[in-house]
Amino acid sequence: MNSILQAIDLCKQVDAPEGRIEILKSANITIQAGASVAITGSSGSGKSTLLSLLAGLDTPTSGDVILHGESLQSLDEDGRARLRAGRVGFVFQAFQLVHSLNALENVMLPLELAGNSDARQLALDILDEVGLAERIAHYPGQLSGGEQQRVAIARAYATRPLILFADEPTGNLDQRTGVHIMDLLFAMNAERDTTLVLVTHDNKLAERCDEVYQLEAGCLE
């Protein structure tokens, strides 16, 4: 397998009233294409910050991230956005759906932004795959938490990303629904041979991944 994502001496510091806080300390990680990787740690350990840096949503104080052969530090904000649009998918704890759009329109959105002429049919197909063929006209407020996360997963995979970042994807769901959502996420990940980077505090969930990294007090182990 080839490396698809690499963090090199990644550091993140922020200014606070009490002084400069080091959120992430010289993190190094190499992720192979097609692998599933969990990043675990207690609340406030810096997991979501690390994920944002790896995905190019935030910039480090020092260090670099190499995503699919490209240095994120060498790109400006527009360049990072273009890289994400073509190769990266996201699933968040809070779903991040557009509430003024129905399920179908939410999934069509990234496809339309990418200029895909088959956006509607592709969105219909993937919504059927996640079990929501009968719910395409429903708005997020008319869907359960589990259904909203299924829409979010469909949207994330619609553009066939090379790598998917999932930040506590079951955090807002009950245990039973969370298990079903993760079964779906791992199944779709395997079918598409996507690389999965998962942030979670759930050790049982982390154990389903190929590799597990522990983040505590800004240090990655």
What does this structure look like?
The protein is α/β, with parallel strands linked by helices. The protein has a single domain, classed as 3-Layer(aba) Sandwich (Rossmann fold). Helices cover 35% and strands 29% of the residues. The protein contains seven helices and ten strands. A six-stranded mixed sheet has the order 6-7-8-3-9-10. Helix 6 links the parallel strand 7 and strand 8. The chain is globular. It starts with a strand and ends with a strand.
Summing up helix and strand content along with how strands pair, one would put the structural category as alpha/beta
Please compute the radius of gyration using only Cα atoms. Answer: 17 Å
Using the alpha-carbon principal axes, give the shape.
globular
CATH fold assignment = Rossmann fold
What sequence of helices (H) and strands (E) makes up the elements?
EEEHEEHEHHHEHEHEE
Annotation, overall tally of beta strands? 10
CATH superfamily: P-loop containing nucleotide triphosphate hydrolases
Specify the number of helices. 7
Please describe the structure with a list of short key phrases separated by commas or semicolons.
alpha/beta; 4-stranded antiparallel sheet; Rossmann fold; 35% helix; 221 residues; 6-stranded mixed sheet; single chain
Give the structure's gist in a few sentences.
The chain is α/β, with parallel strands linked by helices and 221 residues long. The chain has helices at 47-54, 77-87, 103-113, 119-129, 145-158, 175-192, 203-206, and strands spanning 3-16, 19-32, 36-40, 62-67, 70-71, 88-92, 163-167, 195-199, 211-216, 219-220.
